[in-house]
Amino acid sequence: MAKREKTQFSGVYYITTITNDKEDKIYYIRYRDGNNQARELKVGKHSEGVRANYCNQKRNEILTKQRLGEDLPAIAIKKKKHIITLDMAAEKFFKEREMQNKDNAHTQSKYNNWIAPELGKMDIDLIGLEEVRGLQESLVKKEYAAATINFTINLLHAIVNYAIENKLSTTIQNPTKKLKQLKVDNARDRYLTKEECQRLLEAVEDEAVLRLFVRLSLSTGGRLETILSICKKDIDFTNKIIALKDHKNASSYRGFINNDLTSYVNEYCKDLKPNDKLITMPVRTLRRQLSNIFADLFNADLDKNDRKNRVVIHTLRHTFASLLAIQGTPNFYDSKANESPRYQDYSPLREIKPREW
C-alpha cells in the first residue's frame, strides 16, 4: 500500500503518483463513521483540480451530517449550481483592463502559461494558501527566476482581489497575502566575451531561427519578450533601425543594427507580411534549445542554482550592455540607466559602430 502523506488538514492525506508522465497527487480523507469504524474515501487527483482544502471541506461535511443529521446552511450554500472558476474570473479581469493596460495581452499570456494549468479550472472559492504555495513550488521546480515567480503570485493576487470586489468570489481574505515571496537577487556577473559570442554563433549556425534570435539579442540588448515581438514592419531597413517594445516597462525604444545583420534580416523575412513576427518558434522550445546549447558551451561544470555565473537567455542582454561599456560607454551602466529602459536612444550609441554579429 502506498504511503499516505499528511497535509496541513486533519484527516486529509495524499499519495504521490504519475499521470501522463507527470507527477500527480491522489487525495484521500479519513474519518470515523457513526459506528466508530475507521473509513477512508478517495476524493480525486490534483490534476483533476482537487486540492487539500477542498478535501477538508468534504470531510467536514461528512462529520457535520453524522453529528446533526443534515447539512448546515453554509454547507448547503457551498453546493452551488454555478461555480466560478479562476479562469472565468481571469477572463473578466483581463477583459475589463484591455483598454487601460497596454501590456494586457502580454500579461494574459503569462496567466495562460503559468497560472491556468495549475489553478484555472478550480472553483475560485476553493483556492487557499496550500494551492497558492503549490503554484509557487511548481514554478520553482521548473527553474523560473524568483522575480518571475513573484510576478506570477502578484498577478494571481490581483485576479482574486478583482473577483472578491466584483462578488465573483465569497472568499473573505485573499490567500496570496499569507504567502511569503521569494528573495530576488538580480545580480548577474556573467557576460559573454567576444570569443564566446563567436562560439555561440557557430553553435547555432545551422539553426536559422536560433541564429536570428541570438544575433538580434546581441545587437539590440532586447529581453526575450522584446525579441519575440519584433514584426517585419518594425524594421527600417534603410536606416538600419528596429522599433522595439519594452514589455516590462510598457514603452518603446529603438535598436540599431549593422549592415550585415540588416541584410541578413532582410533576406530572412522577405516572404513575410508586415504584421508577421520574425520569430514564431514557441517560447518553451526556444528556451529549451538554447538552454541545451548554453549547457554544452558554458554551464557544464556549474551548479544549476549559480545564477551569477550560469549563461541564460538574459545573459545575451547583459553581454550587449557589458561590451558596449568596455567599448567606451561607461555611463551605460549607471544607476539611472538601470532604472529606466536601458537601451533607448543613448547618444553614445549613435557614435558606436554596431556590433559585428
TrEMBL record:
Look up keyword Nucleus and say if it applies: no
Q: Example GO molecular function term?
A: DNA binding
Q: Which InterPro entries match?
A: DNA_brk_join_enz (IPR011010), Integrase-like_cat_sf (IPR013762), Integrase_catalytic (IPR002104), Integrase_recombinase_N (IPR010998), Phage_Integrase (IPR050808)
**Swiss-Prot/TrEMBL keywords:** DNA integration, DNA recombination, DNA-binding
Position of the signal peptide? none
Domain (Tyr recombinase) ranges:
187-357
BP terms from Gene Ontology? DNA integration; DNA recombination
A Pfam match is Phage_integrase
Q: Which family does it belong to?
A: Belongs to the 'phage' integrase family.
What the entry lists under PANTHER family is as follows: PROPHAGE INTEGRASE (PTHR30629), PROPHAGE INTEGRASE INTS-RELATED (PTHR30629:SF2)
Q: What's the name of the protein?
A: Tyrosine recombinase XerC
